[in-house]
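Usage example:
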Amino acid sequence: RNVLKTPLKQAATSQVVLTERQPDCQPLTTPPKPKETSPVEPWTPTSNLKMLISAASPEIRSREQRKQLSNSSTEVLQAKHCLQEHLLGDEYEKSQPSRKEKSLGLLCHKFLARYPDYPSAAQKSYICLDEVTEELHVERRRIYDIVNVLESLHMVSRLARNRYVWHGRHNLPQTLQALKKVGEENKYIQQIQMIKKREYEHEFDPDGERNEGTASSLGSSEQSEMSFVELPGVEFHAASVNGRKYKSLRVMSQKFVMLFLVSTPQIVSLEVAAKILIGEDKLEDLDKSKFKTKIRRLYDIANVLSSLKLIKKVHVTEERGRKPAFKWTGPEVLPNIQDTKLETTSTTCSPPVSESIPSKEHCSKNLFPSKGKQNFTRHSSLIKLVKSIENDRRKIQSAPTSPVKMSTSTYQSLPVFPSTITQLPAIAKPQLEGQSKTAEEMQMKCALSSPEAVPKPEPSQQPTPSQPLGVCPASHSSVSPVILPHLHSGVSYAIYLHPSQAHTVTTYSPGFMLQPLPCANVTGIKSNNSKVLNKITTEEGDNQITTAEPTKPLAAEERPEMKSETSSQRCLKRSQALQENNLIKRHRGDEESLGTSLTFFPSGYLIPLTHCTHGTKADCSNKEKAGMCSLQHPTYSSPISGVIPMTASELKTVNIPAFHITPLNIMLSPNSIAAAPVLSNSCLNSSNASSAPNPSSSALNFMLQHIGLIPAGVQVPANPVLQHVPVSSQAENTSYSSGSTNVQEGKVITSSLQPSAPKEPEEPQAVTESFFRTPGGPNSGSSLSTNSDGTERISQGTLYIPQRKLEVLED
DNA sequence: TCCTCCCGCCAAGCA
DNA sequence: TGCTTGGCGGGAGGA
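Running the assembly step on the lines above writes:
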């Protein structure tokens, strides 16, 4: 076999060589002469041009190719030998295509050029591997690499031996949505966080014992169970479907894509990806070679994905060095699977908020069509999903009515949230949609779920079931609560958005860049800043790593710039961690260059809503009472008191699963603690007058009292955001709290998030002391527990203030 | 020196 | 049994 393959490849090479050398080597003209016109000749500008032209008409090209390639291999071999004889060794070597020219990425480009992105249904393209290998002059093995990745995206599917069907990008939106769902279900965000945390722990305590809680928390069985995610109608016919499927490049590719889809910003380092793909449970005894192998495969996949323009190579520069990473540049993926127009029509939208929870039956029906052969290789998470839907429904229906109801419906409109409900396939949305719902309700939910999605509450943008993704009117005013479903252990949280935070933001990064901070106190953070610095650079000098998400410019551009500049500057001034002027300059420069700049998170409330029940109408009515339910009142104030000032765009991009792990960095000085109602009930007494009119304060207080977070009689402004949390002199980290990844001049300054710990009420010090409290550690409080997966759980009523920190790295 | 990833061995699995 | 498919890791080119 080797005898057959190797000469073939060399023959291909020799064609190139001969073509280029011909003018100078007359004796060599005979065999390769016809190949001068080879349209696939990739090594000269002329041939590249020909290739491009032929790409427009692949059939013609194929015909020509077949004709040309009909030359016997012996002729080619003869030519090669002849060439070798006439060329010096060095010359011959130089004549070989460089490594780059043989790269998988380039090969993939050539491969893709053969087929249209969106083939019409009539013109089904079939891929014959033999032809492809011949025409592209590559080994079969390489084509498999490409095809496997394309298969993972359902751009091709295997028809038979040697034969594939080209689907193009038609299936891409659905595939990505499906992958995102599965990725959320697999809690990849948490895994990423855990890996980063572990990295940190290892870095600062290399000899120390591994945190068993975290060590065992990853690599769940789900991970190993993970199989190929299919789409209805795109069947999987891999030859070794039952054998090596689980290790295959397809699955790996899908997982890799999932990491991007669940991360915010959508940047994934190879290292983290490799670890996740290997499975964290195996990391303990991970041998280096396995890791290296995984990295190799990831490069292979990344090359193909790059050719598809789905990702782009970037670099993350950390203390330990420059790490290769990739940034998602593909279409923004939305949670609902509808039609293929999604990709082009709804890249910046949020899902419709008016949807109701699809029934299990609907879900199953759509996921696993009963007619004919089942098209899905069922992912375990999908089965769980259906079950969880049922359970959630039951809970919702049986739960007493409460003002929190809204959160239920909000679940589905928060694509990035890991709630199982959120992950419901949106397939059945339109049908299940409470079509009787009023536009008002819909809009209100819309504003709730993604107030940042669309800044203008124009009726024309009101989401309708026909709209694949909710284009929600934005609420600019006062408090913008958002229900965060199922953060820790299924606990929902409510977040209030302060209008002053409503300015645009860069994406919040809970992903790979998150680095635990090595500080046990505020100053400690400062001293260890460098440890957690991350810098991302793109090879292309892309200076908009996070903000320039091509599909998410809406909020950033349209949102009124409110206080970002001043607040950020204020925060910066107070930042002792950023003493270096140049860092500040960079920071400011980032803001300016980004146009929308940073958002800083003051403290706020993030309140678990475990006991809150769901229901739309009561909730709406409550909100209406508060004057926030109608379209005319984009301002929404949830009776639930959770308040976390954050920007709308943050909410849009924030990854809630990560958020609950390492979200806000609220470094409060003792002085400011009193102003941070989050920390203790007593703090709720903070009576700072809210500068913003707050129509819902009574409702808020009612809720707070109702759920026992504040004593009766205590009044809390419904908008206890920044005004309650004056940034202290030690609160420098607040200035980072946006967690934004900022880019300037090709560099991205990323946030460093640290494993957050719930804060002990009445113990302001816990804010800092609990930074790296490990589960069960000295700082564990009664309100804190650890889930089986190692994640921390806060019991009901606990106010949870995650912390994170953004550091600016100067070159 | 490290990153990147080409290359091809060889085993699993299919026809 | 031959061929297809693709996991895997050595090692070389490139930065």
